[in-house]
Structure formats: structure tokens, C-alpha cells
Amino acid sequence: MPEPLRIVELAARSETGPTREHNEDRYLAADGLLAVADGMGGARAGEVAAQMAMDSLESVRRAADAEDLAGALRRANEDIHAASSEPDKSGMGTTATAGVVRGSSLYLAHVGDSRAYLWRDGALEALTEDHSVVAELVRSGQLTKAEAATHPHRNVITRALGAAPSVEIDTPEQGLLAGDIILICSDGLSGAIPDKQIGATIAGGGGLDAIAERLVAIANESSGADNVTVVIGRVDDAPAEPPLGGGAGSGERRSLPVFEEARTRSRRGLKPLVAAALTLLALGIGAVAWVDSRSFTLRESSGEIEVARGLPIGLQRTWQPTGVPASALEEAGDPLTGGTRGRGEAVRDAVDLIWSRGITLPKPLSTPDPDPAAARPRPAPTATGPEQP
Ligand code: MN
Predict the structure, then answer these.
(1) 185 CA distance to ligand 1 centroid (A)?
(2) What's the pLDDT at 97?
(3) Which of the two ends of the chain, N or C, has the fewest CB atoms closer than 10 A to its terminal CB?
């Protein structure tokens, strides 16, 4: 029977980054539970969705295994989906990747494109598969990994909590060895720098706090385009130690030297988990259609800028013209960013564009939600604080 292992050191860091106005990432790091959620949806609904996922996980904080984690994510999915019928939360959703150490194993529950990694003996290995359009294109051979890494729509996900009444959750399991480091992060890290660089940063050593800080700093320097969140735990034999106390992020921890000695181990541990990823293929078409219907882009069409609906992989169709001639952008040297976004964001960007060009609209753009209730000021959602733009 393998030695029971525990998380003996834990660190977390989450930053808005230089580009975004709000941090829609949320995390948990306590009692052996590590989790990251990356919310999406206009009007800060993403923060609400991500927080709902964390609240649900919090309720099973002393979870026994992945099924408990998956159950918590399923309940979060139902709650988020139900809440997303409210006008100001329409289309909200979140990724969620959670892990718990029990016995000598790491149990994971995973939806979306946040990631879990294992760092062992100097090598970093991904334990989760992204539920994203580009990841599926890579898996089906239509895109290389290198193309995926720089693809403008690499942040478009195909599975999320809140998208549908039910959700399929991956539950990979990984055998652990003393000295392993578990990293869970949002795509603000994994999308900003290659896995190699993440591994090298961990190998740089120091306490996990220092590593978390370096990872976030490097992601912000390299890209800075997204919120970035990392939760890192180190496992070791610790049968006599009580589990770490509660508290998010920089809660209590023992700081042990991590990298000073070369550890010898009897075996290399278990095979990498390929696990639940195969189910993705079955899911593909419906999920892509769902994402497609919620993806909006500013693009040029017949010399004019328009808001297009649909994924920019040949699925786009005109949704709303803006009346802004493409030549106006060329003169100003403004490129279109090209990224997909929610309807509300796309409309806001289009309106900004129109205002900045001083153009009189031929007809008004639709508001993000046709429901007049959406236009009324509402109390801020409780989980996100008081501000409204
Ligand atoms: Mn993100």
C-alpha cells in the first residue's frame, strides 16, 4: 500500500493583468483542494459564474474523490445555467478545474480550458485536455500544436459550466509520488507561455509562493491579455502532520525546501493519464454549434465594418453592420482585433468604434439583450461587489 501523501505546501496567485479591467478568474486553495475557474459572459457575469463554481466546490472541500468534485461541478452547472436566464447574466459560464489529494492519488474534475499539470523530476506534464475549439482541431489533425498556440481564437471553449442543463465532466486520476508539484491554472498562464517555460519556471525553485509570483509575472510580461491565475501544491509523505488549515491563497503553510536535494524514487510513478479525453469527440459538433451561436466578431465585409456572428473558422455570417467604412480604420491605423467575444462585448466594441469615428449610425445597433429589463440599472450581483460601469 503506497504511503499516504499530503499537500505540504500551497500557494496561489490571481491577477487581472495589464489589459483586462476585471478579474473573472476565481480559485480555491485549502484543505488539500486546488481549483481554478475562468468565467465568461458580459456585464461581469463571468465573475458570478466562476464564483458559483468555487462556492459549490467549497461545499465539498473535504471531498473524498473525484466523484464528489464532479458532483459539485454538476450542481454548479445547474445553478449557473438557471441563473443565466436572468437578462444581465445571459450567456454566462465558466471553466472549472479542481483537484484533491487523497491517499496517494490526485483526483481531478475538469471542464473547459483551465489546466492541471504535474511537475515531477523536472518535467511538466498536462493532466487535463482542453475543451476548446483549437484543441479539438489539433486532436482531429486539422491544426498543428504550434498553430494552435498562436491561433487568435484559442480561447474559445467548447464545454463550460452553465452552457447547458447538463454537462460532461472529465475526471482524470493521477498517482502521486513524494515531491510532486501540482499546478492548476487558467489559460491566462497556459495560453501565454509554452509548457516548457512553465516547467522551467517551476524548476527555478524557491518556495511555491515565489514560483506562483514568477509564473504570473512571466505571463503578464509575455502576453498580459488575460486574467492569470495559478494554484500550486507540493505533496510529500506527511503521515504525522495535520492537514493544512483553511484560508484561500496564502493561508498557513509550512515552507519546506523544495529543490535542494535530488530525490531518489523507487519508480517513475503511474502512466500519464489519457483518460476521459476521448469523450470529447462525441461531444464536438453540438458544443461547437453552441459556442458558434455565442461568438461575435468585428470584421470587414464589402468595405464596411460589421458585427458578425459565428466562429471565425468559416462559420461567420453578418449579424449587424456598423456603418463604419473600413477605410476609416485604415486611415487611423487601427487593426481589428479579430477575437471572438460575447454579443454584449462585440456591440460595445462596435459602438466604441462608431463613436471614435464620429459616424452617424444609419440605424441603431441592438443592445446586448432585447429584454428592456436588461437596460435598467440593477443591483450588482452579490458575488462581484458594488460597481457598475
Ligand atoms: Mn482566461
Answers:
(1) 9
(2) 98
(3) N
